[in-house]
Structure formats: structure tokens, C-alpha cells
Amino acid sequence: MQSPRLEIANIVKDYGGRRVVDDVSLQVMPGQVTCLLGPSGCGKSTTLRIIAGVEKQDRGTIHVDGKLVCDTVFRLPPEARSIGLMFQDFALFPHLTVGQNVAFGLQTRDAGARVQALLDKVGMTRHIDDYPHQLSGGEQQRVALARALAPKPQIMLMDEPFSGLDDRLRDDIRDETLAVLKDEGTAVLLVTHEPGEAMRMADEIALMRDGRVVQQGAPYNIYNAPIDRAAAAFFSDINVIPGVVQGALTDTPFGQFLAPGLPDGTEVDIVIRPQHLKIDFDRGGRGPKPTSSEGTAARATVARARFMGASSLVEFRMDYDGSILKAVVPSVFLPKPGTALWLMIRRDRCFVFPRA
Ligand SMILES: Nc1ncnc2c1ncn2[C@@H]1O[C@H](COP(=O)(O)OP(=O)(O)OP(=O)(O)O)[C@@H](O)[C@H]1O
Questions:
Q1: Is domain 237-354 annotated with CATH 3.40.50.300?
Q2: ipTM of this predicted structure
Q3: Whose CA is nearest to atom 24 of ligand 1?
């Protein structure tokens, strides 16, 4: 079993009597990318600044490769932590060339070779003698990555590093950055408020809310087994069917759902992602209730259909109770309002949460 490269335990930070980081514990394994994901103001950047050493925690410990970096008594200064930093407003030194920027923190005799190798990796070799103002935003970002990696940090902390880039460029730079980081074997802690970015970059996601890590796991698990309604809603639009538990079951348009362990009378939300509602195209809403491996069925009529580009969003009015459920269908599917169809849902794709 590998030991974590970075381990933070029970970190607490208050500002003016308000708890901003509330007992946060995290591990990042060597060569892995962990994303600290959460809405604005939830304490992500503060956590990162504490790890970097530019902010002091009120409680908790930080270890790198098993060695204590800081607790509330002992503190290694930021420059002694073997931690690289990359922030959105990274500033390259304007009076230094690309090559000099990357070499800046290097005192070794083979600095030239290291600079060359890194510029190769980020595809910026031909710009080695250019100055930052001669580069595009994406090119500057590549140089900033090379500069941060030059001293071979054991850990890279990145705070919304791609948010200054436009959409198309951002996807490319993300993928390239990930490839370089993996190649270097660096452990990465990346802060972002964008679920899409976290899903794309992370081996592990730590979902943060109000200063706490509320759920941690691989992107697939966090997406498919969210801990509560808010965690589900953070990753996609959701449908919510309200229900009340009776005999460990609750009624829905799709029949009864299990609500294990919840006492009678508990109000619950049944959460369904729109992409998990399947349409039974074959039957066109006719005939008796279909039974299939696709799950359980309910009949509905189309209320509205909109083309979204890669997919279509269809709103259905459920025969059962007149409620509206949204389905996302790949490609083009734009049935007329009033069209009757059978909808299918797999029970294991639905989440039942007690109402908050
Ligand atoms: N130096 C400070 N003094 C007082 N309050 C602060 C300080 N730094 C941050 N805060 C507060 O702590 C809370 C968490 O801030 P933080 O920057 O860690 O959040 P975040 O999740 O990174 O948000 P964002 O994505 O907007 O940067 C915010 O309410 C912020 O106003």
C-alpha cells in the first residue's frame, strides 16, 4: 500500500469568529490528481493557502511523504515545503524571457537541460527567447506550468488555474497539463468550482460545502452515489419527486421505491438525473405498461422539447400526478407537445434522500 504524498488532517481555520475551514482532512497519493470542488466561498482557496504555508491554520496537521510540514506549533516556511503553486493570476516575470522564467527557481548546474525538457513537454521550445507579452494566454499558461514544475515539486497546488482561458482553449490546456503532470508523477491538489473540470481532471474529488468536505471519492462514484440532494444537484440538473415513506416504501409515478431505514412519515426527495430517464421509443406511448431490463415504466405526455446541440431536453407531464420531469436525450429528439410516450427508469439510478 502506497503512502500518501500529501496528508492534511483536521484542518480548522476561523476568520473573525467565522469558521471558514471546518475539520478538513484529505490525502493525495503520488501521481494522483485530487480536486477540491465546491461553490464560491466554501473555503477551498483558504485550505490551499494553508497547505502552501502562506496562511496559518488554527488546528490540524500537514504531512508530506510522512514528514510533518506544519502543525500549530511547528511550521516549515513555504519555500521549504517542496510545493509548486499555480494560480489563475499566475504572473510570469515580464522582464524575463520564457527560458529565464522557467529557470528562475533553479540553482542546479543542469538547469539548462531541465528548462529545455520542460519547454519541450509543454510545446513551447520555439518561444524560449520570447517575452511574456509576446505570448497568448494559453502559451503563458504553458510557461507558468513549466516554471512551477521546474524545481520538481513533490506536490502541485492549483487554484482555478484555467479560469482565465476561453472555453475551447481551456479544454486543450487542461488535457495537456494533466498529461505533463502525470508524466512528472507530481501529486496535484486542484481547486475548482466547476464540476466539469473536476470530472475531467480528477482521480479523486473532495466535495466541499460550508468549510467541510462532505463527500470524497472517484468522480464516477461521486456522480453515481451522491451523499445528498445538494451533492447530486452540484453535478447536473436534477428531477426531484417528493414522497412520504410508508412501510419503508414511497410512491412515485414509476411505482414504489425502497426507502430503507427511514421511519414511516419521513418526507423524502427522489432524485433522478435527466439523462437517466429513458424513453421507450418502440411503443410510442401505446399498449400496457412495458416491462424491460431498462427499468420500471410510467406514461407521460410531452410538454416541451428543446434542442440543446449535443442533446435534446424534453419535458414530460406525468400521467400519474401531472408533475413535470425532464429527460435529456442524445442528439435530436423533438416530439410534438402532447405526444404520449412511456418513460423508463432504473431504480438503481435514482437516489432517495430524506428531505433536508
Ligand atoms: N483573509 C481573510 N480574512 C477574512 N475572511 C476571509 C479571508 N480569506 C477568505 N475569507 C473568507 O473565507 C471564506 C472562504 O474563502 P475561500 O477563498 O477559501 O473560498 P473559496 O471556496 O476558495 O471561494 P472562491 O472559489 O470564491 O475563491 C469566504 O467567505 C471569504 O470571504
A1: no
A2: 0.93
A3: 40
